[in-house]
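Re: the 98-residue chain
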Amino acid sequence: MVREFQNAVVRDLVERTMMGAEECGVETILVSGGVAANSQLRATFEERARAKGLRVYFPDRALSTDNAAMIAAAAFVGFREGKYADVTLNAKASMPLA
C-alpha cells in the first residue's frame, strides 16, 4: 500500500513538472526539498528528463532534508532558552524562526 502511494506521488510530481516545463519552454529542472532525497523520484525524473532532452539537477542528498528537521532544529534553540508557546499558538507562514 505504501509503495502504491509512493508510485502515485512520484508519477504525479514528475508528470506535472514535465508538463510545466514543456508549457514554459524550459530546458532545465531543479528538484529540491525533502522529496529530492527520494531515490525513485530521482530515477524517474532523470529518465523522463533524458527522454525529453531536458537537464535535471538535484542537490546533494545531505542537503535534501525535510523541512520538519529545520523547524525542529529552530524550535530546539527556543526550547533550550525556555521559550514555550501556549495553547493559542497557531501556524503562520511568516513567523520568525529565531
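The chain has a mean pLDDT of 88.
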